[in-house]
Design brief:
Helices cover 31% and strands 20% of the residues. By secondary structure, the protein is an alpha/beta fold. It has a nine-stranded mixed β-sheet. Residues 1-6 have low confidence and may be disordered.
Length: 279
């Protein structure tokens, strides 16, 4: 079935129709834009099928530059696609697009909307189409807010690998000028503390992993030169796994020091090396 004649256009498709697609609908070496639709939300994706790949990487955005995006989907790192040996799915947070776009949204939606459910189902369907059926061959990746999203996605694919760099595990503890717009947009102006109490799994991606406890494979790279990451987010990670040791199948923290990068993610070559290293 030929779903998309023009490689530059966008295919708007429901989960039911996505299931009807086949591997041949994802043409090798031709990035394909999809909008996955549901009654409540649309998730923009960019999918890349590599000709000889056996693994799949799901890449998530960090903060979005709204002046650059103008409310349109951004797929960070997608210009690197030819340098990544695996199949790729680039996920754009729906809250960062449209007239009310936020630079950071951490995959949040007004309860009971839970965007991650749609994303998780979508990834699994596309993975089947790409013949990546073994979860050990799937990697969820993100830095900063993208790391939060990657962990949410891991919650539905527990045997897969998650690779995060300077991630926010609890977005409500990021800087107030980014947190407050999300609280106003989705939580009726409640405080960050109220969200942590009423919706702990929405605030803290690690808490969401407890909804179905299974051993995890997480590789966390944190810059010791970033006081925010070392003093606030790293202790959240360490406290969680100290209290939930049975989840530590392969949970590793890699500290490095780069005073020029700070909270910013690894540069391109370092990131590509991590993404292309087969685990």
């Amino acid at each position: 079935m030929n779903w998309l004649e023009d490689k530059n256009s966008v295919l708007r498709i429901s989960l039911d129709d996505l299931r009807k697609m086949t591997r041949d609908d994802f043409r090798p070496e031709q990035p394909m834009r999809l909008d996955i639709t549901s009654p409540d939300v649309t998730v923009p994706l960019l999918v890349v099928r590599r000709e000889y790949a056996e693994q799949l990487i799901i890449l998530n955005n960090g903060a979005v530059d709204l002046k650059r995006s103008q409310g349109k989907p951004i797929f960070q790192r997608s210009s690197w696609w030819e340098d990544i040996s695996s199949h790729q799915i680039y996920v754009c947070d729906p809250g960062t697009i449209g007239p009310d776009a936020l630079a950071l949204n951490w995959m949040q939606g007004t309860p009971p909307l839970w965007v991650n459910s749609l994303i998780a189902k979508t990834v699994r369907i596309i993975a089947q189409h790409l013949d990546v059926r073994n979860p050990l061959d799937r990697t969820y990746f993100g830095s900063s807010a993208g790391g939060f999203a990657a962990l949410l996605q891991l919650s539905a694919d527990k045997q897969a690998r998650c690779l995060v760099n300077n991630a926010q595990f609890d977005w409500t503890k990021w800087y107030a000028h980014h947190v407050t717009p999300v609280l106003q947009a989705h939580f009726a102006g409640r405080t960050a503390a109220e969200v942590r109490k009423s919706w702990p799994h929405r605030a803290n991606a690690l808490q969401y992993l407890l909804r179905k406890p299974e051993p995890l494979n997480i590789e966390y790279h944190v810059n010791a030169a970033s006081s925010y990451d070392i003093d606030i987010q790293l202790p959240i990670f360490e406290k969680f796994f100290s209290a939930n040791r049975s989840l530590c199948n392969s949970v590793v923290v890699h500290r490095y020091y780069d005073d020029q990068q700070g909270h910013s993610p690894f540069p391109r070559l370092t990131t590509l090396d991590l993404l292309n290293t087969r685990k």
